[in-house]
């Protein structure tokens, strides 16, 4: 077992974890299930988590690596009980079907909009290319990101 301390969704936490456990397994200990292991190879994006504001594949990221870092999950994007612009846009456009991949897409879209507040369709496709939706909701996902970009730019103005 290895002792680690980190900031999880804005609050400091400490725990002991086996060195071979991944970040998804660690988050489940804290009752956070938005990040899901699907492919186990970092190819689908379902396990996306933000570590120090950078997206990582939680299935490939060893839990002990978060020691001293900031971890944010999809459960932390809301503010004061209100959904983030990206979360709301996914609902408004129906950018999900089964919802299994949605948390990963939302976190990647959130990061995209922080880096590129007004992305083109090609920018969105390229940035989200590491996330897979088996239901095929890609047109709605693109629309959701564009809608969130508009909402975010209005809020900043």
Question: Can you give me a brief rundown of this structure?
Answer:
The chain is α+β, with helices and mostly antiparallel strands and 157 residues long. It has helices at residues 23-29, 85-93, 102-115, 121-127, 138-156, and strands spanning 2-8, 11-17, 48-51, 54-57, 70-72. It has five helices and five strands, in the order ββαβββαααα.
Strand and helix map with partners:
Layout: E1 2-8, E2 11-17, H1 23-29, E3 48-51, E4 54-57, E5 70-72, H2 85-93, H3 102-115, H4 121-127, H5 138-156
Parallel strand pairs: 1-5
Antiparallel strand pairs: 1-2, 3-4, 3-5
Helix pairs in contact: 2-5
Terminal CA distance: 49 Å
Q: Please report the first level of CATH classification, the CATH class of the largest domain.
A: Alpha Beta
- The proportion of residues in beta strands is 15-25%
Secondary-structure element series: EEHEEEHHHH
* Strand tally: 5
Count of DSSP-assigned helices? 5
Task: Summarize the main sheet.
Answer: 5 strands, mixed
CATH homologous superfamily placement of the largest domain: Beta-grasp domain
* CATH architectural type of the largest domain: Roll
Low-confidence stretches: none
Q: Calculate Rg over CA atoms.
A: 15 Å
Q: What number is the mean pLDDT?
A: 94
């Amino acid at each position: 077992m290895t002792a680690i301390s980190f900031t999880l969704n804005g609050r400091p936490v400490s725990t002991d974890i086996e060195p071979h456990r991944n970040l998804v397994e660690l988050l489940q200990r804290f009752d956070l299930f938005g990040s899901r292991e699907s492919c186990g190879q970092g190819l689908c994006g379902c396990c996306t988590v933000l570590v120090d504001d950078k997206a990582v594949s939680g299935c490939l990221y060893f839990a002990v690596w978060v020691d001293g870092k900031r971890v944010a999950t999809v459960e932390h994007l809301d503010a004061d009980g209100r959904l983030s612009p990206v979360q709301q846009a996914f609902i408004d456009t129906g950018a999900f079907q089964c919802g299994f991949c949605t948390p990963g897409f939302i976190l990647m879209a959130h990061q995209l909009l922080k880096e590129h507040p007004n992305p083109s369709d090609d920018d969105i496709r390229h940035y989200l290319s590491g996330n897979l939706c088996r239901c095929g909701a890609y047109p709605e996902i693109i629309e959701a990101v564009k809608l969130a970009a508009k909402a975010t730019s209005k809020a900043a103005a």
